[in-house]
Amino acid sequence: MTAWLAIIAPAWIAGSILGLLSAPLGCLVLWRRMAFFADALAHGTLLGVALAVWWQLPMGIGIALVSVMVVVGLVLIDDERLPVDAVLAVVAVSLLCLGLLTLTQLTDQQANVLGFLFGNLLELDWADLPILAASVLVGLGFLTYIWPAQVKLATHEALARIQGINPMRQRLFFMGVLAGFCAIALQAVGSLLISGLLVLPALTARLYSAAPNQMVIIALIVAQLGVTLGVWGSIWLDIQTGLAIVLVLAILFFVALIVSKLLAKSWSAAN
User: In tens digits, what is the pLDDT along the chain, a chain of 271 residues?
Assistant: First the structure.
């Protein structure tokens, strides 16, 4: 048991730390209707990793470069004739293909492709936790700083403009936090599953929330539950840890959805 804990405990703690940032950030993603953008940025992390390996740069720099490219590219291809969600879907799949192509053809990382796609949380050890914790604390600190403006823009943009809030600046701030989260979440769940880690806890919390703060608290609880069950379940079922975490979060969402519908029907019948 002690040997198992030496492997599982760092992964469990790392996932729990990551959940502290993913829950409030996921709530903002839903409120600002940017789930497709988050998905595109998450897929872009794979290309960022591939370019970093190819050019022998730190992975963070590669991911930052791709994030900037995505934002600039979206501004350049913006066209009122094209639905935004469709454009983001095309960008996401293009980034994924480019990332896979670069990673497998131009680098020596073919053997690690599955890890980049689905994460490998169990490879983290105790030495990695301080860096992860510091990164999450920085993200939480910046998110706390921009939180009031972000909530105002999400609920009433016109009123936020009158109050002197710059939507473009706040959008860039939000994209920066999102890009940072994608960078630190890559090893946990991989580029394909980052958006699931972001959106599912917030989506589950939305079913039972009447206020923004309440939604964040419920999302935090769901994220921690998903990480805990996912990490231990991946050991029990012998599957990828990232897959297990997101699958547990998906199950929690569908169970919560069914329960909320049953409660709503019961309430309607009682009245």
Answer: 555 677 788 999 999 999 999 999 999 999 988 888 888 888 888 899 888 888 888 888 888 888 888 888 877 887 788 888 888 889 999 999 999 898 888 777 776 788 888 888 888 888 889 999 999 999 999 999 999 999 999 888 888 888 889 988 898 889 889 988 988 888 788 888 898 999 999 999 999 998 889 999 999 999 999 999 999 998 888 888 889 999 999 999 999 999 999 988 878 777 6
- Radius of gyration, CA atoms only, the chain: 19
Instruction: Indicate the domain borders of the chain.
Output: 2-270
Please tell me the CATH superfamily of domain 2-270, with its number. Answer: ABC transporter involved in vitamin B12 uptake, BtuC (1.10.3470.10)
- 160 and 172 Cβ atoms separated by less than 8 Å: no
pTM: 0.90
Helix H, strand E, coil C: the string for 25-71 is HHHHHHHCCCHHHHHHHHHHHHHHHHHHHHHCCCHHHHHHHHHHHHH
Distances (CA, A) of 33 to 77, 80, 85, 134: 19, 17, 10, 28
